[in-house]
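Box 3.1 A note on notation
Throughout this textbook, protein chains are presented in two layers. The first layer is the amino acid sequence; the second is a token string describing backbone geometry. Keep the layers aligned when reading.
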Amino acid sequence: MSQHFHVHPDNPQPRLLRQAAEILRAGGVAAYPTDSCYALGCHLGDKTATDRIRAIRKLPEDHWLTLVCRDLSEIARYARVDNIQYRLLKSCLPGPYTFVLPASREVPRRLVHPKRLHIGLRIPDHPVVLSLLQELGEPIVSTSLILPGETEPMTAGWAIRDALEHSIDVVIDDGSETAHLSTVVDLTTDIPLIMRQGLGCASRLGLEA
């Protein structure tokens, strides 16, 4: 049965985040809030936990998972970023954007799109996940918490625990009930391409929605 941590949305309790990070390091799967919606996440190096996330969402092997990072330097470690791309990332992050970039060798091959060798990366503008990332010391492998057959993400911690208490290990609940998705932007082309319009404004990218 999953644990349920109630955390303050602006000043999350360090003790609870330390416990959550320990659960992730031990191979656990967490549901946690972001600036767009709740997400499922696990330790970067844990294939079994990644497979559990894919099974919960019934995702195919070629579905992109995202690396949720602490800062731009961490993105630059796990992706190949040129100067123009870096300036665009800096203007939008932290924020509700996911950027698709060529993966670096630091990314396990099982997380990379099998044909394109790309990876999605983001830095949410949310104190809870940023504090969790700081405690963990590395990115979280992540995907939006949308259950099979649904089109919208789950919106409340208590509902997530009721639905997934035997499938995940911890719910980090900040009391929010947001149900937006991030805007996904492909930066592997000459001109940035919006793959999914979500919460992030296209105008910040210098593009039209």
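Residues 79 and 144 are 21 Å apart (CA to CA). The mean pLDDT is 94.
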